[in-house]
Fold each of these.
Amino acid sequence: MIIVGICGASGSGKSTLAKRIADSLACTCTIIGQDCYYRNFPELPFEKRIKLNYDEPEIFDFDEMFHDVEKLLHGEPITTKGYDYTNYLRADSPDVLIQPPEVLILEGIHMFYDKRICDLMSLKVYLHVDVDVCLLRRIKRDIKVRGRNIDNIAEQYMETVKPVYEKYIEGYINDADFAVMRGGKNKMAIDAISAYLTTKVLAERFGTEAPAVAIKDKPATTEPDDLPDSPKTHGEDRKTDSADAAIEGDDPFDYFASDQRDSCVDDKGDDDSLGEDEDEDSYVSTRYARYRRRKVGRTLRFLFFSAFLNFGLAIFALFLFGQVYNHDWAMTQSGGFNAIIDAGVQVFFLVLPLLLAVLFNRLLYKMFNLSYSPGWLIALLVFWILFVLIGTLYLVYAYNLMGGMAAFDLGSIFGA
């Protein structure tokens, strides 16, 4: 198996280059994105997860990635890794296996950070795109698609994107074999890399050195540095989209604008393609609309089932309240330890319906995979729960539902 590493800033065209190289090869090829190996923090609440620094290399689990690559090298399949950009949690698919390919492409902003993984690479490619182009792509995307203003873009760029790029990413060019300019659509670079990989694949298949030119009319090289270098550039780190949440809250668009879309096998799109392909705008908008429709559907199902759940809890609360109201309080009035226990039991009966309402509605909320970070949306769901509970009590009182209050031994209180 031949391993190719692609590194560079966001906006440089890493995913586009990886996809076009894979399309140009006549052998099996798998693309794995580094974002699928973000460390998982399910124990942290959502508000703390969105404040983590997703740009630093320490946020990636390089040990896990290294072990997976080693498994593929030894002919063993690995489970599909993924990441949920909406909830900032891992979204692996353990039932879906990735079989060892002939060419494995690893791409990410810190792809050259771990020397163990670098040592396994047959070819290391670093992408250069002029800093002005990278910044213009980001401004265009954030304003046109995400409705952000220039102040938020500038703040995020100065606080997270630029420092990480200058500290880590621009230095990775020293580890690269190829330096590619003009982004992922550089046809000359794609042809040269494709020819080089085809040569390597043929050599592995036949156990000998393949001819220098493996594909007609395509240049091949065993000296990857033959591709021209380009001036040092300044770009952005792809996962800084996660930091957008610190400015605007939960942004589900990041899930669909990402190059992985919850899968470590990159078979669609490019995180930087909004600046390269105009038709990507409509594609992302369509995916985002589908996401919104699915979320609305889950919300409606939650409201439907919670109505039945909370109706039952309201009836249960009336039953317990009737039992407490008609309880013989003689033991409690007598004093002593038994009186304390008896009073505690009655208080527990009063609180139990409330505890069950919180527990069951929380489970129902999780079961339908809802994730509302804005407080007003959560407040609406709480209002709905209270509406059902109070509405049930009113129906029992005003319309004698289920025999009215007298059926729960509460007739003396409510005049029934």
Amino acid sequence: MKLLQAIAAAALCCLVVTSCEPDDSAPQQVTDGKLVATVEGESFSASPESIQAAIIDGALVVIATDMDSGTTIQLNAQDLYQSYHDLGEFHESVATYKASRVTTFTTSMAPAKGEIIITDINLENSTVSGTFMFAAFRTTEDLNNPDYEQMRVTEGAFSNLPVGVIPAPEQ
């Protein structure tokens, strides 16, 4: 009986240890003014001089370039004062990953999905912070046999990005 209890206790310990591994989709820690993410397992990091952030007619637009790889992540959250933004084919908020001048992956087509979460808006200091993750797609170049290619962006985070405000045009 004691042997059975020892085996059960050992199995329970293994279960507890393996279930406490870090979540791969958890946002990374990020320093102020930066945007970081993991793109298909590779690190993406944009420093303040390679990030543009603006509030345009109530929407947040962030464009960040990793200067080492030349790749770009763009986030468009349509209602800045809503904290959660669902991404996908029929959603107003959109994320894109530009791998090169001619290769862009977007969440505006099926079966793309993801989220942008605005965690802090500091109007006094004109900064914004948040997290994001998405699976974006592009169609392949073969027009006779079109197919989709996927790009996964996980563990995305930005912290205290300086944000400019561009007023809506007068009508």
